[in-house]
Design goal:
The protein is mainly α and about 170 residues long. The chain has one domain (about 25-155). It has eight helices and no strands. The mean pLDDT is about 95.
Length: about 170
């Protein structure tokens, strides 16, 4: 009886690397879609673009018009590239930087209450969606974009995957 349970017990403790490509793909594609849509609205919806310019000025960002356009373009094009898995690590780095800047310049002061203890502060901080985006981007940088990506295809084509780092 115990021997029959061993595959399940092994799965519970170690997972199954054969299916690793699926959560990598879902995370990369869904993050890409989210940022592509967000960036699209900031680029092509005049009201949202003006709101972003106003926010940039309000937080003291230099050159608010340029920075709003730059951020929206990074989100839109970075999101599109993440969806297809092209230059995924570069996009993850750029979007991580954008999220860290958003956390520091906007989210901490606007969302987290003042004068609370460290554990309460950490609870509020970890609840910020930008923190989870950063965690997922770092994970994607480390795992790579997965086998359902143009990066993977190009790495195979140009034999850049010879160290055995296949994410299949």
């Amino acid at each position: 009886m115990f021997a029959a349970l061993m595959p399940f017990i092994k799965f519970v403790f170690t997972g199954n690397r054969r299916w690793e490509w699926l959560p990598i793909f879902v995370a990369r594609f869904s993050l890409g879609l989210f940022f592509a849509v967000s960036g699209y609205h900031k680029l092509f919806n005049p009201v949202k673009h003006e709101d972003l310019i106003h926010l940039m000025g309000e937080i003291g960002m230099p050159f608010p018009e340029f920075m709003a356009l730059f951020l929206a373009a990074v989100e839109f094009f970075g999101g599109l590239l993440l969806m297809v898995g092209l230059f995924s690590t570069i996009c993850a780095i750029a979007l991580t930087i954008a999220m860290i800047v958003a956390i520091i310049t906007v989210e901490i002061d606007a969302i987290i209450p003042k004068g609370i203890g460290f554990l309460d502060w950490m609870s509020w901080f970890l609840y910020l969606p930008q923190v989870m985006y950063v965690i997922l981007f770092v994970w994607l940088m480390i795992t790579g974009p997965g086998c359902l990506s143009l990066d993977y295809y190009l790495a195979k084509k140009y034999k850049l995957d010879e160290e055995g780092n296949d994410a299949v």
